[in-house]
Amino acid sequence: MSLPIWTRRRLLSAGFGGLSLTTLAACGGGGGGSGNPPAPAPPDYRPVAQPFPLSLHSAVALDARSVAVVGGSRGQPSFSASVDLFDTEAQQWRMGASLSTGRSQSQVLALDAQRLFVHGGARSLSGSRTAEWVDLGRGTSQPALASPSRLAHTATRLRDGRLLVAGGSSSEGYFGGVSPTLELWDPQTGQWRFAARPLQQPRQGHSATLLGDGRVLFVGGFTGTGMAASAELWDPATETSQLFSDPALGRAGHAAQLLPSGDLLLAGGETGATPQAPNPGVLLLRREPWRVEALAPALPSLAAASAITPGGALLLFGGVDPSGQAVAAALQAGPGVRALPPLPSPREWLSATALPSGRVLLLGGENRGALATSGLLFG
């Protein structure tokens, strides 16, 4: 069975010594992959200066005005090791730290406004440590203890401060290369261990959502042979999970939002051996008792960048169509789907970071191998 586009293209980006296929195209024509000048922004988008071309990176909000941008493809022969800080109010960039190796598509958690946990993704140096602790106050990065390499996995901060790393395409030797294992990290001691039991299904490209009671809800993903049409509710107290299956849950690369009711809103992603938009495109997963409710038909793009605003709106930007071409679509998902003004130009591999102001910072991305050289502030 061939891998879905969402999964396959991320795995391809890990090859060539850390050089993505799209970056090869971007570097081949010179000019650092800058491509054509960016199109004028629609009224709802404000241009943001971006001092380097950028794609396949990770971004996380640190406080009310600062966003950390980690690694990615920056038009160079290997992935970037830079951790840069962007002040959304002053519209200024500065260097925060440098990783021990270049990375793309890593999972990044902000422990506080000065410390980051960076795990997995594609690495420029294959023998480097999988995880790193980053101290932005000192501008330093320290490799964490060795752990299995992972791509398209999840990282979640638990209520007790521990970090939970789950699934992904891994080096552990599981069938199809997809892992069911869970790792628990203690940021105070820097120590890690495997959870007592793995997930009941291996998952890659799944979602992981921390619930109000401290449990974590995993949904969907690719198993190595097909889509995981299921959800698992994992309890950190017992390190065991409850499994619920439903065909509508079979999707990867989707967005997940916890609602005030405790139910989970799922939107977008892809499904199938050949890339297809899941139908329904938006659904509600109710739990205890478990049941699924369809809310909206298939969405126009796959693997869109998602952000949840402080007001609880789930927004999706860009992504690709079933043929793998970048799109400019933007929408708000909920009980219905509301179209937002489209991006000035198509973008995939961009990041979307919700800010306390209610705006969303959109950075990087690419279109047909040309890396974006400017960002956008939506809202």
UniProtKB/TrEMBL annotation:
Q: What domain of life does the UniProt record list for this protein's source?
A: Bacteria
UniProt xrefs under SUPFAM superfamilies: Kelch motif
The reply to whether Transit peptide figures as a keyword in the UniProt entry is: no
What name does UniProt use for this protein? Answer: Uncharacterized protein
Q: List the signal peptide residues.
A: 1-25
Keywords of the record, alphabetical order, are: Kelch repeat, Repeat, Signal
Specify the species: Inhella proteolytica
Q: Tell me which PROSITE patterns the record gives.
A: TAT
UniProt cross-references to PANTHER family, sorted A to Z = ACYL-COA-BINDING DOMAIN-CONTAINING PROTEIN 5 (PTHR46093), FIBRONECTIN TYPE-III DOMAIN-CONTAINING PROTEIN (PTHR46093:SF18)
UniProt xrefs under InterPro entries: Gal_Oxidase_central_sf (IPR037293), Kelch-typ_b-propeller (IPR015915), Kelch_1 (IPR006652), TAT_signal (IPR006311)
